[in-house]
Amino acid sequence: MENKRYPLPPFTMETALQKVQAAEDAWNTRDPEKICLAYTVDTEWRNRTDFVNGREEVKQFLKDKWERELDYKLKKELWGFKENRMAVRFEYEWHNAEGQWYRSYGNELWEFDENGLMKKRYASINDLEINENDRYL
């Protein structure tokens, strides 16, 4: 039996906003061990052109991500929700090992199980090279 991850669906405006804020806060820790617990053991992801299946693959994906995307800072915004699904807009800033900064923009579609764990995450993301002094996150 998996733990519950509150708030649970079906979402209201208040609980949908709480869920998005919790995801933003968790991802900004850059802690794959903690973050992966918000997903079902058999979670299904599409992230850019990567397909990730299961909590263990999520954990490894996030470890690899933050080895490349340094000083990562994320902001998420709820765009819509219905029952156990959400649409979220996000942007994040990071730099690579050579010091080039990026702002990455995208949209995510989320689907949750009855325990409030995310079972599906589909993300489309674009990157924009920026100067360090153009950062705002």
From TrEMBL:
SUPFAM superfamilies: NTF2-like. Coiled coil: none annotated. Gene3D superfamilies: 3.10.450.50. This is DUF4440 domain-containing protein.
